[in-house]
Every structure is written in C-alpha cells, then in structure tokens.
Design a protein that fits this description.
139 residues; mainly alpha; 6 helices; 65% helix; disordered N terminus; disordered C terminus
Length: 139
C-alpha cells in the first residue's frame, strides 16, 4: 500500500511532530535515554524511519477518526490496543524495532542535522511520489 500524500505543509507538520509515538516496552533510565539519542542512524535507517513515520500518520489518523465517535469505555480501550498493535506493525514493516524507532525519533527531535536529513527525505517524497522507499521484505 502506497501513501503519497505529503505536501510542503505536511512536511513542516511532520517535523514538528517527529517524536516517539509508541510506548517503549521498558522504562528507560535517564542514562539510557541520553545514550539512545547519541545513536546516529545511517541513511538507510533514516529512510526506513521516515517511511514508518509516514505510515504511522495514516494509522493514527484512522484510529482518531474511529475513536472520536466511540462512547463505550471498554470499546475505547480495545480500539487503543488495536491502534498500538497496528502502529507497532507499521514500524516493524520498515525494518525497525519500536525501541529503535523511538531512539531515532528522539535523536531527530534533538539534532538539527538529523532534522534536515529527515526534511530532505520528506521533501523528496512530496515532490516525487514515484521515488519509492525500499520495499520491506515480504514474509
């Protein structure tokens, strides 16, 4: 499934919201957290991060639409669990673990150089939708 809906305003919006969106399975200590922001992704990993990020936007939007009209608290909890599962799948489709995705998101948030690299990838996608990211391997 292809998502080529990026525009210049979305690029800016995407950069503004580039942050960890998935709860990490473990609660990192401050020392662990500062170490993760130092792990610089290579170009391939950063491209996979951007692909996962774009996919996550779609997943989040879809679930927000579903949740906005739901009034049953039990059903809301079930929808939230489904959303987390789908977000995890979206990240893993691009060859990243949830922990690594979150590490890269933190690094991008804190590093202007990485922000520029992410912006360049997003702009390339926005201006040339035929430029495909490497397809994840089929299982």
């Amino acid at each position: 499934m292809k998502h080529h809906f990026l525009s210049a305003p979305l690029v800016a919006l995407a950069l503004a919201f580039t942050s960890p969106v998935l709860a990490a399975p473990s609660d990192p200590t401050p020392t662990q957290q500062s170490e993760t922001t130092e792990a610089q992704p290579d170009d391939g990993e950063l491209s996979n991060f951007v692909a996962a990020f774009v996919r996550l936007i779609g997943v989040q939007h879809g679930y927000m639409m579903i949740m906005q009209d739901e009034e049953d608290p039990n059903r809301l909890e079930s929808i939230k669990r489904d959303a987390l599962d789908d977000m995890t799948t979206a990240v893993e489709q691009d060859g990243l673990s949830v922990d690594r995705y979150n590490e890269i998101a933190l690094a991008v948030r804190d590093d202007p150089n990485l922000q520029g690299r992410v912006e360049a990838i997003l702009q390339q996608l926005a201006s040339d939708p035929s430029a495909e990211q490497p397809a994840p391997e089929e299982e």
